[in-house]
Q: What sequence folds into this?
C-alpha cells in the first residue's frame, strides 16, 4: 500500500466524499489551518521556556503578551467574581480583550482553533469511527450548561474558582506549558469517555468552558453560512463531520437566514472541508447577502414555502 | 390556549415536515439528482406546553444543583495545601487566595531562580496553584518581589512595598533533640544563612541542664518564611522548618472583656 492510499484510508468517512472528488488537501484545508492554529497558540507560550524567546508569558488562564498586553479567560474570571473576589483593573482589561476577540471570531472558535483538548477529543472521535464503535451513551446537549451553572454555584459555595480544580482544558494547556505530572490521567479519561462511552461526549455535551464560549458565540460576528444551499446534494457529509450537527439544519434546510447562528457552532469549518459542492463558507453576521433570502423577508408572514407561493400564483 | 398547543403537536403535516428536516443526513447515492426537500417555514411549529417547560426547568435546576454539590464537596477536599508547600511572597490569605488565583503561572515565569512551581495532580498544593518547597528551593527574597508584581488578579499583592513585608510562613525550630546547637555545638547555619540576619533569627544564650548554649531563636515579626534556614539545615531532615503561620505560631487568647491575656495573669488557665 503506498502512502497516498494509506492517507485516504485514514481519512474520516465524513471527509472521504470531498477527498475523493476534490483531493485530500481540499477536504482538510481548514482542518490543517485549525491544527496549525492550535499548535501556534501553544508555541508562542513555549518559545520562552524552550528557546528563551519570550512572546507570551503565563498560560490561557491569564497571560502577558510581549510584556504589555494582558489577556485573561472570561469564564475563570466569572467564577472568581462568584467566589466574591474583588477584581483588579488588569484582569478586567484582559477579560474585555478576550471577550471582544471571541465576539468577533466566534465564541467557540476557542474550542476548535485554540483548545488543545479539541485535538484529544477529535482523535478519540476519529478512532471511534475507524474502530467501528457505535455504542453511544446519550447525554443531553444542555448538560454542559448545567455544569456551567454548577461551577458558578460551587464557586459561590466554596469561595474558590471551583471548576479549576478539575478542568481538563486548563490542565492540558497548563500541563503542556508548565509540565503536566500526573495530570495525564484526566486527559486520558476524557479520551476514553469520547472513545468508548459517548459520541463527542466531552466537547459537545459536558464541557462548561465550551458552553460559556457558546454563549459568547451566539452573538459573535463571524459565522458559517450555507450560502450555496441550493447546490446541496444531501450527501450528509457535513452532518457527519460536524461536532454539533444540530446547528446546520436551520441554515442548510431552512428558508430563513443562511447563517449558522447557534452558539454551539464552533466555527471549525468541518462542513466547509467536507462539502464537495462548496455550500458553506465563512461569513459576517452583518452581511445581508448571507441573511434571509429577499423573497422570504416580505412574504414570511403569509407563505414561507416556495411550493405554496407557486401554487398561489397559479390560482 | 391549551387547545392551541395540542393542535400544534398533532398537526400531521407539521410532524411530517419535522421528520424530514430531522434526518437530512440519510445518505442518498452520491451523484443522483437532489430530491425536492420540503422547506420548513421559519415559524416554529412544535409548541411547548407550560407543564413541559416547568418540568424541564425543574430538571435542569435539579441537575445543576446536584453537580454543584458534587463539585463543592470535591473542592473542599482538593483545596487543602500541604504544610510543606509555601505560597509565593505577597500571597493573600489562603482562603481568599483560591478565589483569586487563576493558575496562570506568571509568578512562576517572573521568578528569576525557578523557585516557584505550578502544582499538577498529586502535588502538595491545589491543582495548578503556585507553590514552593523550602527544603528543595527556598525563596531568595528579591527586594523588588518580581513574582508579586506580575500577578494579574491580586492573588499576590502587587503593591507589596518590600520583600520584608512578605508572609510565606514562619520558621520554627521544630526539633530540639537533633538540632546541633541544642547538643552544645555551634552549628548556627540557620542563623548565618538567614537573609534577615540577626533580626529574623538571633542566637540567644541559654543555660540548659547547666550548660551554656546558643539557641537559634526566630522572631515572628521579622521572619518572612523564605525557607533559607530550612533549606540549609545540615541535618538529613531539617530541624528548623517553615510552617504556615497558623500552624507555626501560637496565639494568646482574650479575656471576657476582650483584652489580650498577657503578662502576669497570662498563665492562669483556671477559667
A:
Amino acid at each position: 500500500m503506498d502512502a497516498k492510499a494509506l492517507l485516504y484510508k485514514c481519512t474520516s468517512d465524513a471527509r472521504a466524499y470531498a477527498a475523493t472528488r476534490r483531493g485530500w488537501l481540499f477536504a482538510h484545508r481548514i482542518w490543517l489551518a485549525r491544527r496549525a492554529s492550535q499548535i501556534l497558540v501553544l508555541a508562542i507560550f513555549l518559545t520562552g521556556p524552550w528557546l528563551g524567546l519570550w512572546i507570551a508569558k503565563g498560560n490561557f488562564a491569564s497571560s502577558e503578551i510581549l510584556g504589555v498586553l494582558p489577556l485573561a479567560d472570561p469564564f475563570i474570571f466569572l467564577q472568581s467574581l462568584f467566589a466574591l473576589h474583588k477584581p483588579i483593573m488588569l484582569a478586567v482589561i484582559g477579560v474585555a480583550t478576550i471577550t471582544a476577540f471571541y465576539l468577533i471570531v466566534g465564541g467557540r472558535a476557542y474550542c476548535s482553533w485554540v483548545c488543545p483538548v479539541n485535538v484529544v477529543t477529535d482523535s478519540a472521535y476519529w478512532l471511534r469511527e475507524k474502530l467501528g464503535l457505535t455504542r453511544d451513551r446519550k447525554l443531553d446537549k444542555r448538560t454542559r450548561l448545567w455544569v456551567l451553572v454548577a461551577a458558578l454555584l460551587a464557586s459561590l459555595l466554596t469561595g474558590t474558582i471551583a471548576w479549576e480544580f478539575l478542568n481538563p482544558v486548563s490542565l492540558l494547556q497548563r500541563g503542556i506549558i508548565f509540565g503536566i505530572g500526573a495530570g495525564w490521567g484526566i486527559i486520558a479519561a476524557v479520551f476514553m469517555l469520547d472513545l468508548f462511552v459517548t459520541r463527542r461526549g466531552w466537547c459537545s455535551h459536558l464541557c462548561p468552558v465550551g458552553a460559556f464560549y457558546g454563549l459568547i458565540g451566539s452573538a459573535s460576528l463571524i459565522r458559517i453560512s450555507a450560502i450555496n444551499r441550493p447546490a446541496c446534494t444531501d450527501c450528509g457529509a457535513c452532518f457527519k463531520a460536524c461536532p454539533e450537527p444540530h446547528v446546520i439544519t436551520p441554515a442548510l434546510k431552512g428558508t430563513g437566514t443562511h447563517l449558522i447562528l447557534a452558539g454551539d457552532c464552533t466555527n471549525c469549518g468541518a462542513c466547509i472541508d467536507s462539502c464537495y459542492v462548496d455550500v458553506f463558507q465563512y461569513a459576517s453576521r452583518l452581511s445581508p447577502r448571507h441573511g434571509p433570502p429577499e423573497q422570504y423577508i416580505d412574504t414570511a408572514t403569509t407563505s414561507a414555502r416556495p411550493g405554496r407561493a407557486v401554487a398561489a400564483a397559479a390560482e | 390556549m391549551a387547545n392551541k398547543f395540542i393542535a400544534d403537536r398533532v398537526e400531521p403535516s407539521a410532524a411530517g415536515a419535522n421528520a424530514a428536516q430531522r434526518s437530512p443526513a440519510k445518505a442518498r447515492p452520491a451523484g443522483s439528482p437532489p430530491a425536492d426537500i420540503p422547506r420548513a417555514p421559519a415559524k416554529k411549529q412544535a409548541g411547548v406546553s407550560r407543564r413541559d417547560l416547568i418540568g424541564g426547568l425543574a430538571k435542569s435546576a435539579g441537575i445543576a444543583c446536584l453537580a454543584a454539590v458534587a463539585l463543592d464537596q470535591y473542592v473542599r477536599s482538593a483545596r487543602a495545601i500541604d504544610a510543606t508547600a509555601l505560597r509565593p511572597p505577597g500571597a493573600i490569605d489562603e482562603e481568599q487566595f483560591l478565589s483569586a488565583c487563576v493558575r496562570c503561572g506568571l509568578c512562576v515565569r517572573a521568578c528569576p531562580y525557578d523557585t516557584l512551581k505550578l502544582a499538577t495532580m498529586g502535588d502538595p498544593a491545589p491543582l495548578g496553584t503556585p507553590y514552593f518547597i523550602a527544603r528543595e528551593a527556598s525563596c531568595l527574597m528579591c527586594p523588588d518581589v518580581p513574582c508579586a508584581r506580575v500577578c494579574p488578579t491580586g492573588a499576590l499583592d502587587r503593591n507589596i512595598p518590600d520583600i520584608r513585608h512578605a508572609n510565606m510562613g514562619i520558621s520554627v525550630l521544630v526539633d530540639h533533640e537533633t538540632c546541633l546547637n541544642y547538643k552544645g555545638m555551634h552549628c548556627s547555619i540557620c542563623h548565618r544563612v538567614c537573609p534577615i540576619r540577626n533580626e529574623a533569627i538571633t542566637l540567644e544564650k541559654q543555660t540548659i541542664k547547666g550548660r551554656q548554649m546558643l539557641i537559634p531563636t526566630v522572631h515572628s515579626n521579622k521572619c518572612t518564611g523564605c525557607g533559607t534556614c530550612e533549606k540549609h539545615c545540615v541535618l538529613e531532615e531539617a530541624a528548623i522548618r517553615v510552617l504556615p503561620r497558623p500552624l507555626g505560631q501560637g496565639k494568646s487568647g482574650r479575656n471576657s472583656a476582650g483584652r489580650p491575656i498577657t503578662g502576669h495573669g497570662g498563665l492562669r488557665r483556671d477559667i
